[in-house]
């Protein structure tokens, strides 16, 4: 059979391709896509990556229905089930997979070849995945919400990484999509949540998401305000999701002793940030990063969404029918959207 897929061929240039899907091999699953959210990662390729990024097939925040099961599948799903596929592959046997860091798996099954398309390919009508990549949703789950299992899984990994205790005080830097999800998950963990965000409209949403305190990082009294709100101690953890190097320096100025600086976001362009080693030494600080999701954090994300424990609906700003993906990306890169969702099967 064939499927349509979106190929990024150059900055702001997307093409619809007809791609042949081979018959299923053992332990493979054919999925019919329901929704695919347009993540910041794909937005970077849309706005303009480096020339060797193309051709690229994006889309990794996906919900889908099981269309067909190949032979010998061991995952507990049936044809017709609503699932969230984790489009990251994991071999299960490399050093990092065995060390509990399967998000860092060393074995990509299809190494990239120059000029050949690469990428997760979730912006397609149909997808073939390995059975271990499929997570079944609970009954009655909205497929639009389930498409956000991937970012929720990444954020679960972030908020569970530092050694924190209920009632600890944390700051979320940036209240875009990933910042908002950090607020939701940090509340679930029992933390007092402060947020720093320059845009008033995002600060308002941060309060609706459950933040106790919202601050403007450009305010001259930012540090005093944080100390006021934390009994004079500062923060037990800062989750950096946006703001670049200046935000990271600002975070280091408001850490409590024994605090964790957690770099969830990446910084573009990359660069160096000055850190005084004696500050880290005397104050016993931890500096860590998190990248992507593990199979465990993915399972937890699908459980939380299935149980209605996290409500991601405020962050689906707009739904755009596939394949109007140019319009979708123009909306996705606009600062007034959190996530734009491509919906499938509703063109007519
Ligand atoms: Zn994503
Ligand atoms: Zn591996």
Detail the topology: elements first, then pairings.
Blueprint: E1 2-10, E2 13-20, E3 28-37, H1 40-48, E4 61-69, E5 82-85, H2 95-98, E6 126-130, E7 134-136, H3 143-146, H4 149-159, E8 169-173, H5 177-188, E9 192-196, H6 200-209, E10 213-215, H7 222-229, E11 235-240, H8 244-252, E12 255-263, H9 277-282, E13 286-289, H10 295-306, E14 316-321, H11 325-332, E15 339-343
Parallel strand pairs: 8-9, 8-11, 9-10, 11-12, 12-13, 14-15
Antiparallel strand pairs: 1-2, 3-4, 3-6, 3-15, 4-5, 5-7
Helix pairs in contact: 4-5, 4-10
The structure holds zinc ion (2 copies).
Task: Give your account of this protein's structure.
With 348 residues, this protein is α/β, with parallel strands linked by helices. The protein has two domains: 2-153 and 293-343, Alpha-Beta Complex (Quinone Oxidoreductase, Chain A, domain 1); 162-289, NAD(P)-binding Rossmann-like Domain (Rossmann fold). It is 27% helix and 26% strand. The chain has eleven helices and 15 strands. It has helices spanning 40-48, 95-98, 143-146, 149-159, 177-188, 200-209, 222-229, 244-252, 277-282, 295-306, 325-332; strands at residues 2-10, 13-20, 28-37, 61-69, 82-85, 126-130, 134-136, 169-173, 192-196, 213-215, 235-240, 255-263, 286-289, 316-321, 339-343. The strands form three sheets. Strands 3, 4, 5, 6, 7, 14 and 15 form a seven-stranded mixed beta sheet that branches. The protein has a six-stranded parallel beta sheet with strand order 10-9-8-11-12-13, with helices on both faces. α4 packs across α5 and α4 packs across α10 (295-306). The longest helix has 12 residues, at 177-188. It is globular, with a radius of gyration of 21 Å. The mean pLDDT is 96.
